[in-house]
Amino acid sequence: MATMAASSLQMATARPCISSSRRAFRSAPTIVQNNCKGASLAKLSSACHISSSAQLFGRSFTSSSAKFDKFAVKAMSEPSESKGSGLPINLKGKRAFIAGVADDNGYGWAIAKALAAAGAEILVGTWVPALNIFESSLRRGKFDESRVLPDGSLMEITKVYPLDAVFDNLEDVPEDIKTNKRYAGSSNWTVQEVAESVKKDFGSIDILVHSLANGPEVTKPLLETSRKGYLAALSASSYSYISLLKHFLPITNPGGSSISLTYIASERIIPGYGGGMSSAKAALESDTQVLAFEAGRKHRVRVNTISAGPLRSRAAKAIGFIDMMIDYSLENAPLQKELSAEEVGNTAAFLASPLASAITGAVIYVDNGLHAMGVGVDSPIFKDLDIPKTQH
Hints:
By secondary structure, the protein is an alpha/beta fold. The protein has 10 helices and 7 strands. It has a 7-stranded parallel beta sheet with strand order 3-2-1-4-5-6-7, sandwiched between helices.
């Protein structure tokens, strides 16, 4: 079972891509994999976190055509020189490794952009079978429009590393994976090997981001989930974070920050979010607290997780569940607007910055407040209540 980029519920709105200058992409030489088809990548990227279930919170509904305004506060790439303009997020001189970037419309990409806008150097880890397509798209300028930062420059990715976070070291890799043609030609892609490669190439990092997950049986109810599928979900979606921290912590500078992505299904019932993925997210949040203590005491590194709301993506739209998730949030969240990827990215930039120097072991909700709701206010039961709605 392989690890992929973060969930379709945790991916950004797809944007049209244009070919443009390649000059800002200065990736160091990276071993790539052939024969990775675009269709299979889309299928793999959509395999986690969402299902074709027609119910959410025990009720059915159809996709709304209503349009909601998007609001995003951009991370600042330069300290403000004007007095009284607020506190800028300045990450100049910092280096970030982001595990789980395989395209330009996921949370990992949005976080990379926010960190880059704040001045951080960006390294990424990409799932081995997706590596060829991802690097090819970068070289051909397919992501150039998505790489534009608030100051008009293009996000630079210093180096792309092949990564499969399901495997801690080469001894863990089964023979069928070693001989799989999707892995042929790639090397040093287990967690331990990637950490060693980053140390050799750059010496240290300051920010570690875990933006990957996989649940091979996510469409199955928990009662129908196999032991193998359940354990695979936990391995790829929660233990992978422990492994990343274990191997990257020794090269993370004191005062650094580590961030993962979680989802409200860890503590609320989300019908259709099965295969053990809700359990994996619950484990991830529990582990965040323990890891915050251990990493904080041993290395003075902060550990937090972001619980993000639903975001539209190509992979999610292909399955058909994401529209219902977004509609439910639009109707029932305290803030009636569609969540943007930038809002999640900016939260990560804040957590990685000195402005969050006393925040660790926390679950930070970036979901327009949906997590605070105890009922779905769009239910017919509440039709006679005077519930305020945002005017559009």
